[in-house]
Amino acid sequence: MKKTVRDIDVHGKTVLARCDFNVPLDGEAKITDDTRIAGAMPTIEYLIAQGAKIILMSHLGRPDGKADPKYSLAPVAADLAKKLGKPVWFESVPEVVNDAVRAKAAALAPGEVMLLENTRFRPEEEAKDFAAQAPYAKELASLADIFVNDAFGSAHRRHASTAGVADYLPAVTGFLMEKELKFLGDALNDPKRPFVAILGGAKVADKIKIIETLIEKADVLLIGGGMAYTFLKSEGCEIGKSLLDEEGLALAGSLLQKAMEAGKRMLLPADVVAATAFENDAPAAVYNAFGAIPKDRMGLDIGPETIDIFTQEIKKAGTVLWNGPMGVFEMPNFAVGTRAVAEAMAAATDAGTVTVIGGGDSAAAVTQFGLADRMSHVSTGGGASLEFLEGLPLPGVEVCEDK
User: Fold this and answer.
1) Phi, psi for 212 (deg, rounded to 5)
2) Rounded CA gap, 224 and 267, in Å?
């Protein structure tokens, strides 16, 4: 277990907190989804209450190591001030740290908050050579006494602001990071059983390590989304024009074999909704997945029989972990399966099941359906949650002190 801000004395100390404020902006630089900012608030509010002097930092988008007004954190500073009900000092500094920033950091009073400009405005932030990151990491660290990493969404990156600063400051986790590690960790290592894993997405090859991990950890695996057609093809089914991951075809067969040898149930769709084109209004019908999808049709969603089978498995579960949509949920006509799984999980949560959404498109889907607050946990980290579920070490977590 990693130390959190609860485990150290922050009163009167200057705390450098790495958050994930990589929020979507519209053409007028207005925040269209503040979920990530809201996720950081418990840590920030705790630090204020404890009398810490708070310096926040984050990246936003991909400015490629150059100062670009389009990627300024100015809208985030304004939103933070509104949420906190107090001023948040911010100055758009191309070099992120300069004399004015250093002076403000040194003059902070307990409970005051400042936000640095986008950490990716400096090319050293993402330098592949960690030695090249070091001067920038040291510059950031020089502003504070303690480093708090609360940016789970960036924890899989070994950047100056996510890991490098820990070479110069004692490092602990924030509450969002703690929550992510607990829910994802418990789902993998200490789940309430039966443990049901739901996997979607496009390519088997992209998820092979996760599937291998879950064959070992879970009791039942439910396979949907684009990858389901590669599994069906490996079983000799005709999939028409459905997505086929040629690279993952042999893998799919071997994974089904591994699951069978491990005594685990890996359920593929019994039926699918297939259309004549990748368009919302394309003519569509339901087909038996183990029969034959017509050669001129492509599967874009799971069918009603599969929805019923998957829903029954979710109802019986003690823990459900979901990563990857069941179909093309961005198109209303092919969002039925993904919505049904989300609704089944919400109902299961109400009944006491632990439900964990593993970030990425699954998180986007439950948010789109207005069901995010009815899940036990919705991960804020797409790539980070994937790597965690694969069992890979996360640099931004590894640098934090152990309890």
Assistant:
1) -65, -40
2) 9
If phi > 0 it is left, if psi is from -120 to 50 it is alpha, else beta; for residue 121 that is alpha
Residue 134 · residue 164 · CB < 8 Å: yes
Q: What tens digit of pLDDT does each residue of 26-79 get?
A: 988 899 988 899 999 999 999 999 999 999 999 999 999 999 999 999 999 999
Report the Cα 393 to chain-centroid distance in Å: 15
Phi and psi at 116, nearest 5°, equal -80, 160
Q: Which is the catalytic residue, given 2, 179, 203, 233?
A: 203
Per-residue pLDDT tens for 320-339? 999 999 999 999 999 999 99
- Tokens, residue 266: 């890996």
Active site residue 6: no
- The DSSP bridge pattern shows strands 271-275 and 284-288 to be antiparallel
> 315 catalytic, yes or no?
no
Asked if 360 is an active-site residue, the reply is yes
Q: Is position 403 annotated as part of the catalytic site?
A: no
Please tell me the distance from the alpha carbon of residue 321 to that of residue 345, in angstroms, as a whole number. Answer: 10
Residue whose entry in the numeric block shows the structure tokens 């933070």: 80
The residue annotated as part of the active site, out of 36, 207, 297, 374, is: 36
Pairing of strands 220-223, 88-90: unpaired
Cβ atoms of 72 and 59 closer than 8 Å: no
Instruction: List, in order of start, the domains of the chain with CATH numbers.
Output: 5-175 (3.40.50.1260), 182-389 (3.40.50.1260)
Please check whether residue 164 is in contact with residue 153, taking contact to mean a CB–CB distance below 8 angstroms. no
Q: Residue 11: phi, psi to the nearest 5?
A: -60, 125
Catalytic position from the list 224, 360, 381, 396: 360
